[in-house]
Structure formats: C-alpha cells, structure tokens
Amino acid sequence: MNDFRYQLEKYRGRGSRYVCPQCGRKYAFTRYVDTHNNNQYVSDNVGKCNRLDKCGYHYTPRQYFEDNPWLRDKEFSFFSKHRENEKKKKETPQLPPRPMPMPEPYGVIPRWFMERTVKKECDYKTWLRATFGNDTAQQLVEQYYIGGNDYGDAVFWQVDIDNMVRTGKIMNYDPLTGKRIKGEDAYIDWIHSIMQREGVLPDGWRLEQCLYGEHLLKARPNDIVAIAEGAKTAHIGAALMPDMVWVAVDSMLGITYERLKVLSSRHCIFFADEGRGYEEWKNRLSPLAYNIGFQYVLSDFVQCNPLFVGGDIGDIVNMELEEPF
Prior knowledge:
The protein is 24% helix and 16% strand.
C-alpha cells in the first residue's frame, strides 16, 4: 500500500496530462489521485502545473478539502467510481482555487534609443563588411539592429516578438579577426545596467531577457528556427544559411522556458558551441520542448568536427574549407 493516500498521477503519455486551470497550457497539468479509491482524481483542478517558473499553480488535496469541508467524509464517497453510474444529481458547489500571484511586468527601453545606436559605426560592423561584403553586412545590421557606441563597441539588442526593446549587450571586437577582445582590454556591459546606474530607468524596472533576434520570428512563421549560443554565430548563420531564422540565447545557460516559450509549434535546430554546452543543452531541451510544444534537433555538427575544437560554428569563416557543409 502507498505511504501517501494522495499522489500526483504517474506519467502515462499525454493522455495523463491536462490543461492547467490557471495558465491554460495543454498537457502541462498533473492531477492528484486517491490511491485508496482506485486512483480516482480528487478533482479536475487539484494538481500541479509543470511550468514552475512561469505559472506555478499547485492546488493540493489538503487545500481542496480545507476550501470544501462538506466534501470530506469517512468514506470519501464523493470520489467513488459508482457515482459515475448514478442518476444525475446537482453538482456540489466548489470554491474556486486559490489565486496565484501574477508575475510583475517586464521593463522596456525606448525604441529611439536603440535606433540611434544602429546608425553608429563599430569595429564589429567593419569585420562584417570585410567578411560578407557590404550588402550582406548592411542587411544583417538592419535585420538584427546591430548598434555601436562612441567607443567603437558593438551593441546587440534584444527585441522581442512584439518589437519591444528589452536590453542590449555591449561588447568589443577585433575589426580584423571578428573575435571578441579578451584580457585587460575586454569590455562587456548591458544597456539596462548603464541606464540604471545613471538613474535613467524608473524604480521597479525589471529585466526579462528574450531571444536575440526574436523579433524576426513573427514575419517568418513557417521557417525552421536555428538557435545558437551567441549573437555573432546567429549573424554568420543568417549570412550562410538564410533559409532558417537565426536567433541566439546569449549564453550556454540561456536555454530557459522564458526565452524559448516563443518557439511553441515551431521546428527548431539547436547549435551548441563545442564543449560542455552540448551536454548542457542535451539535458535541458527535452522537458522544455515538451512543456512549450516545439519539435527540435540538437545538431552535433560542431561536436563531431575536429576543426571546431574549443569553438563554434562561427569559426567556419576563418577556415578554408572546400565543402564546409
């Protein structure tokens, strides 16, 4: 006999997962069953949403009986299977589940601020033009809103699917090699951090990052989405393989529900950088794809190619390959 009378239903395929009563997501809700009563459901709304980071709905049997004390009796006959064959009776009224707190709205940055930086030059744009030619480089700048600052650093803006500007990442690059400058001369910062330090953003402004290049998804709803780690890899992918929509998660640990939720119903190919990122993504992607509802392939192109040891797919532009793909 089970130690606990009420347990979350074991997974038996999508048929054992339901629509969450709070967020409305399909196949995300697990109901509690009564193990002393032939594993009957306690109630349709008694259970737990699998989207812990976004929804967090969890209505336990204890809370249910506290909210509906008239349903608790010695035999718990309300849940007995024989009730299904009885004549229709007026359903016992139930109190609604306890409301869950809604997440605070995320902050945005004025669009004109981003557009002003796109007009400025930077060393990264110099490398793009030398590598892909003026036309392709300009197309990438316009598509991804690649900006610059007064010091020649690149600004990679995160613009969401609703064309709202979330933030921008600032980095400096070598104009000849296109590689990020490291060591004492390296510079990395975020637009929202600078604005907060200068007191420009209002109190309570909250960052919620999105995919880099996310704004491109709405205009190409039927195209395969290619997901890279960094913005530079996304640019190179867009130049070499433009049939796919290239986006980036910004870091190895950027594979999160919040950033990938816009991929619902999409077909995706994930390109992890060589090294630990591949295993990290391999472990994270399956539950995220199930909860969000996208189909994916995790490419091992970089992992299986000895030319990319310690690098990423972007290194292809620095190599002389007869048949790179």
